[in-house]
Amino acid sequence: MKRIAHIEDGYIVNVSLAKDNAELNPGTMLESDAIVQGLTWKPVVEAKRWANVQEFMGEFTMQEKAAIALSMDPTIAAMRLELTTWLSEVHADDSRVVAGINRIVELGIITPERKNTILSL
After folding, report:
1. Are 111 and 67 in contact (CB under 8 A)?
2. Among 6, 74, 110, 114, which is least packed by CB within 10 angstroms?
3. Rounded to whole angstroms, how far apart are CA atoms 1 and 28?
4. Dihedral of CA 50/58/75/121: which sign?
């Protein structure tokens, strides 16, 4: 058996086992070769987390909150409803948060730069 490193963006993202005679696919190499070349594991980027909805909503200005509250957009309305029943931490990488924030950018409620500020650690 041989250990195969799967490479993305210059990082090892996975290692799998293969039979000694198995051919290497594009984007893979022997793990030992990857290590010799100085490749390392892809760093894990932690998503921002808020302890609760109130902390999450504290990221927005009063004007942004007003625009979110008054929006008739179905995605924004769904996000508002979701947040009213959210009883745990809010994670920036949660698909519902991602969809909601992306939509408020699309609608011009916040800028892409403001989104990055809100989501940055």
Report:
1. no
2. 74
3. 15
4. negative
DSSP string, the chain: -EEEEEEETTEEEEEEEE-TTPPPPTTEEEHHHHHHTT--BPPPPPPPEESSHHHHHTTS-HHHHHHHHH---HHHHHHHHHHHT--S-EETTSHHHHHHHHHHHHTTSS-HHHHHHHH--
- Provide the token pair at 67: 């625009």
Tell me: the pLDDT tens digits for 21-52?
A: 999 999 999 999 999 999 999 888 889 999 99
Going by C-beta distance under 8 Å and a sequence separation of 6 or more, which residues neighbour residue 72? Answer: none
Write down the residue that tokens 């609760």 correspond to: 52
Instruction: Give every strand in the sheet of 28-30, ordered side by side.
Output: 11-18, 2-8, 28-30
Closest C-alpha among 60, 51, 45 to residue 93: 45
Q: Is residue 1 within 8 Å of residue 19, measured between CB atoms? A: yes
**Taking the complete model, does pTM exceed 0.70, yes or no?**
no
